[in-house]
């Protein structure tokens, strides 16, 4: 019988259980990270920030470096294409912001990123990837901060990069590599190919974290058992379901997963989420930020269109309380929603790349505007 590991070592950092919250733009702010951590332990990574924004002191970037007082480990995902900027940004994060873990993003598939050679496009240029990782690891080393990277399988099925990326990450001294088992062309469509995670585990000696299609705690257990990966990265599966981290903690501890929440219990979590957002941003902005989560929380429940529409316009905690009181607290959790995808899915898309990007694996000119289209760029 396969025995699940109870913890994950990233340098001197112990992650127990071996569960990581994937950064999601506009979602994984300090309020959401605290909400999830109240459900179960793990490593909770803040939204992706650009290296250029950190180095140049961009106001938006610095505002995104907001951590709840209860966050014991400050974890940041950094995006960059220029080794010099990435190295300087890592040093600033460690020296001036007390960051405990840096993750580098090489998995973003959106056109405004890949058309500049960033995100999931960048590992195609092996020397550039090696230079960025080397600069980041060396910058973090004096502070004892582990550096990890996240990537995808590749650009498309004909241009896979993940095995090369794993070898390069290991040689650079990365503490782990996370693999989203889809290509950039897939975006979030189709099924994740967990066999790629197993292949990466076989190739490298550093921990491999598996990502893709973890909708329930049982999915995480199957992923680890099938691939031998050291832990899991959870993204869309926790949207509207922060108690997934409670279930994951139980599963990795070998305990029985607790009962599904009723609508009344879901409403309590919704209220807590809005409260934490209000503490971070102020009540009006916090409630406005909360609106995007309504559909995720109520997915599959019988709550009528009128109350959903009103919740989507909520602007105060008092108004939220009145609307939540109209929900039937005894309604059971919709079983049909279990194991089904959440958040964006879409369809495969042509990957937009710089002209001539695929002609060879060596670096051409680095586009200085590669980070400007992103928050904090």
Textual characterization of the structure:
- The protein has 377 residues and is α/β, with parallel strands linked by helices.
- It folds into 2 domains: 12-257, Alpha-Beta Barrel (TIM Barrel), CATH 3.20.20; 263-333, Non-ribosomal Peptide Synthetase Peptidyl Carrier Protein, Chain A.
- It contains 15 helices and 13 strands.
- The strands form 3 sheets. A 9-stranded parallel sheet has the order 4-3-13-12-11-8-7-6-5. Strands 1-2 form a two-stranded antiparallel ribbon.
- α1 links the parallel β3 (19-21) and β4 (43-44).
- α6 (126-140) runs parallel beside α7 (162-172) and α11 (263-281) runs antiparallel to α15 (317-324).
- The longest helix has 19 residues, at 263-281.
- The model has no long low-confidence stretch (mean pLDDT 93).
Compact summary:
The strands form three sheets. A nine-stranded parallel sheet has the order 4-3-13-12-11-8-7-6-5.
Topology, element by element:
Elements (H helix, E strand, L loop, with lengths): L7 E3 L2 E3 L3 E3 L8 H10 L3 E2 L4 E2 H5 L3 H6 L10 E5 L3 H15 L3 E6 L4 H4 L11 H15 L6 E6 L1 E3 L2 E2 L1 H11 L3 E5 L13 H10 L4 E4 L5 H11 L3 E4 L9 H9 L10 H19 L1 H8 L3 H5 L6 H7 L5 H8 L53
Parallel strand pairs: 3-4, 3-13, 5-6, 6-7, 7-8, 8-11, 11-12, 12-13
Antiparallel strand pairs: 1-2, 9-10
